[in-house]
Amino acid sequence: MKNIIVLTISTLVLIGCGGGDNGGSTSPTQPNNTSGQYSIDELDIEFSITNTSSRDTEVIAYARVQESPYPIELDETDKLSIVVDGLRYQLEPDYFEEGTLRSYSVNIPLNGNEYIVEWHRNQELVSSLTTTELSLPFELTQSFDGDLIDLSWSPQPYHSYYHGIEFLECENSSLRSTIGGFVPDLSKDEQYITTGHYQTSLSGQWNESLSSLMSDYDTCKVEIVIASNSDTAPFQTNMFMSLRLVTERTAIIDLW
């Protein structure tokens, strides 16, 4: 692939969740361009097959102009799909509340033997990538003692684990506010977790105490994303597209 910009799903969600407002998710500024304005050599298609629960596996894809962080809309000439054991599932657009594009996605069966992601233009295959292995699932156990948040799970063999975004969100009768979000510094390898255990705290991560939050808000919650990928099914890429295989769990801790 020409130039790969890796933005995890979780990071894009964080970008889309503005703090200190009364509304839902809003999108970052996006270009008005559509895919038909570009040749196939000018576009990068990023696929992710993500297991989000014991029941759900979602395929998410973004079409980007090279070196741009923002997804663009697909024209009718461009179609993204996944073939699971011979059955084709077409990805459909998913939008933010105000109508701008979030991604393309579709839910698929969890127990397939072969997964092929494809990009077609004018009904002709541009490129495809194939995997016969997905990242294995895991389940989180969580606890909160008034300051310390503790997450644990049973690691699968030959899998790497890492944490994505974590943020503190609070509400009262007039305000919904994301007090603070944390995205690990990938350049410092802050995201990797070498054991099946992760801890964070209100005081350490957000410089907050439970008592001060309770005095200002009606409810508060912390959300933390823990993800994994298989060491035997690595990230794939070619000249036109990439494929990432992920298991992702989100811990939601209601503080009171």
From TrEMBL:
It comes from the Bacteria. PROSITE patterns: PROKAR_LIPOPROTEIN. This is Lipoprotein. The lineage of its organism: Bacteria, Pseudomonadati, Pseudomonadota, Gammaproteobacteria, Vibrionales.
